[in-house]
Design brief:
The structure is a single chain. The protein has helices at 33-44, 104-112, 132-136, 149-153, 155-158, 168-178, 186-193, 207-211, 218-233, 235-238, and strands at 2-9, 19-26, 63-66, 69-72, 85-88, 95-97, 100-101. It has a five-stranded mixed beta sheet. Strands 6-7 form a two-stranded antiparallel ribbon. It is 33% helix and 14% strand. It starts with a strand and ends with a helix. The protein has ten helices and seven strands. It is of the alpha+beta class. The structure holds iron/sulfur cluster and FE2/S2 (inorganic) cluster (FES).
């Protein structure tokens, strides 16, 4: 089948304004959009820039906006697109070139929530153990591949006035540690999240959950963070 792609182009070193370029590629219906992009780069225009690595929904590097919805090009079969496919970079982030965006601010926010286990007690001779039930509490969150599709789709992050909101991807990772039975920094984590640019920045608009390629219940997890903040702060009065 012939696939027609309308691709966002912008090279800040030579273009005054972004523009769109049409490419046509012969593809098998079971090919992915990423295969088409690779074919364009190999056979038609080696200057076309985009990120990719694993090709199988694992590395999270080929997040882009496809017909207006953020997703991974390696997970989109061409047979599911009937008309011309519009390919654009992830919104929210500065365009470096074509489909490549600057994810520096995304990872700054991610690091701000301390994405690692914090402990005070010395480790045992073997390992810090937890039960299967304790692991299941945060198992869905560890599927996150940091593709940034959720943060790029979030209306709060898209709004200039609230762009400092830490964003759904960072909150998924915060959830992962807040609900890990081995972590011993709940007060510190609550302090990092308990403000309007933290968990309370979420307006429950569900866009993050709709686009997450790993089907993580992002909005629900942010809701559980808010509940945990509330319960922790009211522990004294509630007696929990
Ligand atoms: Fe991507 Fe989902 Fe992780 Fe967001 S939560 S960064 S959409 S994998
Ligand atoms: Fe790795 Fe798509 S190329 S997730």
């Amino acid at each position: 089948m012939l696939v027609r792609l309308k691709i966002f182009r912008f090279d800040p070193e030579k273009d005054k304004e972004p523009y769109y370029q049409i490419f046509e590629v012969e593809a098998d219906p079971m090919d992915r959009l990423l295969d088409c992009l690779n074919r364009i780069r190999w056979e038609q225009d080696p200057t076309l820039s985009f990120r990719m690595s694993c090709g199988h929904g694992v590395c999270g590097s080929d997040g882009m906006r496809i017909n207006g919805i953020c997703g991974l090009a390696c997970q989109k079969l061409v047979r599911n697109f009937k008309e011309e496919v519009l390919i654009e970079p992830l919104p929210v982030f500065r365009v470096v070139k074509d489909l490549v965006v600057d994810l520096g601010p995304f990872f700054e926010k991610y690091h701000s929530i301390k994405p690692y286990l914090i402990t005070q007690t010395p480790p045992s001779d073997t390992e810090r153990k937890q039960s299967p039930e304790e692991y299941e509490r945060f198992e869905e969150a560890i599927r996150c591949i940091l593709c940034a599709c959720c943060t790029a789709s979030c209306p709060v992050n898209q709004n200039k006035e609230t762009e400092n909101y830490v964003g759904p991807a960072a909150l998924v990772r915060a959830f992962r540690y807040l609900f890990d039975s081995r972590d011993e920094a709940i007060e510190e984590r609550i302090a990092l999240l308990d403000h309007k640019e933290g968990a309370w920045g979420c307006q429950t608009q569900w866009k993050c959950t709709e686009v997450c390629p790993k089907e993580i219940p992002v909005t629900k997890q942010i809701g559980q963070i808010k509940k945990r903040i509330y319960e922790t702060k009211n522990r004294g009065s509630s007696g929990n």
